[in-house]
Amino acid sequence: MTKKSCALIAVAVLIFSAAAVFAGTLENVKSNDILTLGVSEGVPGFSAPDDKGVWAGFDVDMGRAVAAAVLGDPEKIKYVPLASKQKIVAVSSGQVDITSRTTTWTMKRDAKQGVDFTVAVFYDGQGFMTTKASGVTSAKDLDGASVCVTSGTTSELNVADFSRANGIKLETVVFEGKKEAFHAYVTGRCDAFTTDMSQIASLRTTTENPGDHVILPEIFSKEPLSPLVKHGDNQWKDLVTWVINGLIEAEEKGITQANVAEMKSSSQDPTVQRMLGATGDVGSFVNLDNDWLVRAIQAVGNYGEIYDRHFGPETKLDIPRGLNNLWTKGGLLYAMPIR
Amino acid sequence: MRCVPYVNLSAIFSAGGAGRTVVNLLIQGAVVGVVAFVSWTLFDNTQANLEARNIASGFGFMNVEGGLPINDTLLPYEPSDTYGYAFFLGVLNTLYVAFLGIILSTIIGIIIGCARVSSNWIVSRLAAVYVEVLRNVPLLLTLFFTYAVVLASLPHPRRSFNPLAGVFINNRGIYLPDPHPHTGFWFVSAALLLALFITYLVFRISKRKRDLTGEGLPTARIGFSLIIILPALVFYLAPSVLDFEFAVLKGFNYRGGIVLRPEFSALMFGLVLYTAAFIAENVRSGIQSVKKGQTEAANALGLKSTLIMRKVVLPQALRVSIPATTNDYTSLVKNSSLAVAIGYPDMVSIGGTIIGQNDQAIEIIGLWMAVYLAINLVISSLMNWANSKVQVVER
User: Fold this and answer.
1) Contact (CB<8Å) B49/A3
2) Which end of chain A has the smaller Cβ count within 10 Å, N or C?
3) pLDDT band at residue B3, thresholds of 50, 70 and 90?
C-alpha cells in the first residue's frame, strides 16, 4: 500500500513539477532554507534514527556536510525515509534534493533513470550471511538454498547473476522491505540473506545473538555507493560532488573538525589555503562563499572522521577501512584536485 | 461532475426551450474542452519532463532480458527471460490468487454466514466473534499475522512434519506429490464426465416427473453413487492410472513435487479469512431478509427443511446477497496486491521490481490499473449475469 501510493505520488510530482523544471535545486534549497534528504528506512551506520529519534549515520553526514556548506547549518535538513524502490524516483522527480542512501552507481541508473551520481563514498560488495548451524563456509555450497533479498535493489539482480554464473540453484524470496526480508531470514524462512557486505555487518549486530550468524567470504559484486541528484541540474550536482571531494581531500591534508579554523588561519600549504578559502575564490565555482568547506568540515569532520564515527573500531559495526581508505594508504579514495 | 454546472447554470440562464438547449450544449462543450486541455497539458508536461531526464517511455523495455529472480511461478521461468514475461507471470499469480481466493472465501463465507443465523447460541456467537474480529482488523496486519504464524509454527526442513507418505510440511512450504497421468487416467476422467452427464439427465427426468406427478426421484443418491462407482470401476480395470513424483530432501531444501510456499499459503489464509467475514455478513443479511412467514408457510405445506432452504429461502436470499458479494470479490482482487508485503510475487511485486530496475513507473502503473480493471470488469459482468438469473422475473 505505502509503496503503491508513494509511487503514485512520485508520478504526480513528476507531472506537476513541470513548472519547476528549470529552477535550479540550489535556488530551491536556499529559498526554502532547508535541504530535503532521502535516506534509508533504517540501516544502522549508514542512516538510522538514534535513540533520541535524530537521524545519524555515514550517509546522513554526507547530507549534513552539504547543508552546512549551502545553508550554514547542518541541522537544516528534512529527512525522507525511502524504500529501495523509491530511492531513484524520489530524486528524479524532485521529491528530495539528494538521495544519500546506500545506492549503487550503475550505468543504467546514471544514464537512463533521470539521476546523476556524485562521488563514490563507499566501495562495497555483495555477500551472503548464513547461520553458523548450517555449516556452510563458501557461497558456492549454497546450492538449493533459499535466500531472502529486498526487491528493487542491485542485490536482487546480482544474486540471480551469481547463481547463473556458478551453475547453482538458489530460491530467492523477495520482500518489499529490508526489515521484512531480514526478519524472514532470522525466523528461518531462508537459509541465507544477501545484500551489501557493510549492511550485512550492520544488520548482524541487530540479531539476538550475532555469533550464530556467519558472513561468507565471497564478495560477488561491485557496489560503489554514491549520493545521487537529479539528472540535468549540473550546478547542483557539481556542488554536492565538490563538497564530498572536499571532505576526502581534508582527510588527506590532515584537516579535522577540531583544527579546521586553525588550519585556515595558519596553514602554509597553498592547497589547504585554497580549499579553506584563505586564498583564491574556489567557493564561487560552486556558487557559494569562500567558507563553504570550512562549514562542512566543522559540521561533520573529514571523511576519515565520518567513517570512524559510524564504522570505526569503537563502533559495533567495526568495518575495516579496506578499499575505503585514501589512495595514499592503499585504498580507492582519490579526491579530484580542488583548484 | 457534469451535474453541478448543468443544474446551477441552467437555473441562471433560465431561458425558454431552444435557448436553454443551446446554453446547455455550450456548457457541456466547455467542460469537455477543459477536461481535454488538462489531460493534454498533463501528457505534454510528462513527456517533456521524462525527456529532460533521459527517462525512456513506451513499452520497449518489456522485450529486454530482465534478470529478475522469481521463486513462485505457475509456468517455468528463468532470470534470462524478458521483463514482459516476468510481468505476465505476475499477472498469472494475481489471477491464481484471485480465482482460488474467491472460491475458498465463498465456501467459508457461506458456512460462517449460516452459523451466524444458527439457532445454536454458541455457534452463532463464535461466528459473530469471527466476523467482527476479521472485519475490523486491517488486512495488512492480518497478513503479517498469518505469515508470522505460518513461519513460526512450522519446523526447519530437516525436521519436517510428514503426516502422510510423500507429504512434507516445513517452513519452506507444503510439499505434495506431483501426479503424472498415464493412459488410464484419461479413461477414469472420461468415466467421471460420463457419470456427471448421466446425473444431469437424471435431474432433468426427475424434474419433469415432479412437475407431472409431484413425486421426484432420489436424485442425490443416484448421482452420488454414479459419480463414485463409475470412475472407481474404471480405475480398477484400467492398466495404470497415475504415478507420483515425491519431494526429496536434498541439501538445504526438498526438491520436486508440488510446493505451496509459505508466502502463498499466508496470503491465501489472510485474504480468504478476511473476505469470508464480509461474505458471511452478506449471507446472513440475505437469509434474514426472507420473512419468517415464508418459512412457516412452507412448513405448514409440509415441505422438508432442506427443500425449504433450497426452494424458498435461498432463491430470495441470493437476491440480497449477490450484489454485495460482487463488491467483496472485486475487493479481494484488489487486496491481493498486499502480497508484496509478505514476499509473494504477484503482479504488483514483480511490477514494482521492474520499476526499481527501469524507472518506467508510468507504464507499469498503467498496466497494473488495466489488469485490475479488466479482472474486476469480468467479475462484475459474471456476477451481474448471476444476479439477473435470481431476480424476480416481472410479468
Assistant:
1) no
2) C
3) very low
